[in-house]
User: What shape does this take?
Amino acid sequence: MNTNPEPLNKEEFRPPTLSEATLLRMSRYLNVLEEFAEKEIPHISTRKLADLLGVNPAVVKQDFLPLQVKGQTGVGYEVPVLMQAIRDVFLSRGTLSFAIIGFGNIGQALANYVSFEKQGFEMKAIFDVNPRFHQYQVRGVPVEDMEHMEEIMKERQIDIGLICTPAHTAQDVADRLVAAGVKGIWNFAPTELMVPENIILVHEHLTRGLLALSYHIGQRHTFKDESPKPETQNVWSRH
Amino acid sequence: MNTNPEPLNKEEFRPPTLSEATLLRMSRYLNVLEEFAEKEIPHISTRKLADLLGVNPAVVKQDFLPLQVKGQTGVGYEVPVLMQAIRDVFLSRGTLSFAIIGFGNIGQALANYVSFEKQGFEMKAIFDVNPRFHQYQVRGVPVEDMEHMEEIMKERQIDIGLICTPAHTAQDVADRLVAAGVKGIWNFAPTELMVPENIILVHEHLTRGLLALSYHIGQRHTFKDESPKPETQNVWSRH
DNA sequence: TAGATTGTTAATCGATTAACAATC
DNA sequence: TAGATTGTTAATCGATTAACAATC
Assistant: This one.
């Protein structure tokens, strides 16, 4: 991408460029660190983290390389310090606000999903075309009609839109979210979307899980079974 | 991986080994193909598919390499044929049944998520510890107490368990699912799990999306802006 | 034919893994 | 000290991309 080796001479903090694989692991590290913090376990090593996620310890070390954090040789990392360092990478710009579009099954589940708040994200609006939902509210946020969505979202300066509508209206909603000035879109509808270059688009591929499961089960029960299967001795591990 | 070039002499169909990245794209191809089938568009090319997903056409060609399907030079693939070929990779062993454990927000959303049925998966049970849910049912499937979960699941020969409980009980549920004889687990709780080698475990990392969004928005609005945006002219003086 | 696309091989790129000196 | 772990460099591996002959 960047071929000419320009010297890095600005030393102010800048979040490093992370691959999608690293980003995924980072969110998993954060889950683990939150558990450890709750249990007041003071330290954690790359080895431990790797064991928990089922990855090679070297990958954890590589992930931490660009972080603004120092571990203690022979001991590991301080849980709160490491946790903060990872959060800083993600939330360097402060907290973000979001709106949910579509108050169907998934929309309702996400509106009630408190983990988002715990991570510092604020739900500022919920929209649905169906009038029967307009009487509802979730933790103080009412379900509103979609007619004035753009104005409402601009007014409340909402950063992210969560598309929870059926697939055939998702592109339409995406266009309106762009018009409403969002910086990013999180798409839960099982369809591909077109958005301008400057909009961050994250797709939640819910059927991927089902298909991956089906594929791997098919693989295992067709071919792995050929060899051992004395109840496989239950070797517990992460994978 | 396989260095010695052993001749492929069994020509019965065997699903090829697919990477996680390929598996994810496969599920996206399927989404697109279903849309095209609905609109009765007869053909699709790797170029078109690549454009829709935002990937390089070469990656699509590579993904299709192990598929049991032939495209027409100069035309592309027949939509129904390609769709079936992809489904065959995933569902080679027939349909799978699943149970939902935990009838909270996410559990309810998944129980009502009809796409699973459309893909040929059958919901055979729903469990929750809370008695107030035991009066409910979703499309004929009642919410049952967790006490006899293992027996019920064995009896109904359920293949997959969807963990939709809070994080702190997820490992416990996983252990019981293993005891109940599932082949795979789909974990929606934000925690890492230990399961035996022979159990397929798929993790749905719901906070990943939020963090990825936050990270990319931070990146873009901090550094991409450096070029245009007149306020950020910022001539950096070295010292 | 001209234009488009498949299907494959080889080249490139990036991510994972191994290895180990430094250090608590 | 002995044992454990960090932090980094180099090697390996696998996935993506490029290129192009074959073909409709």
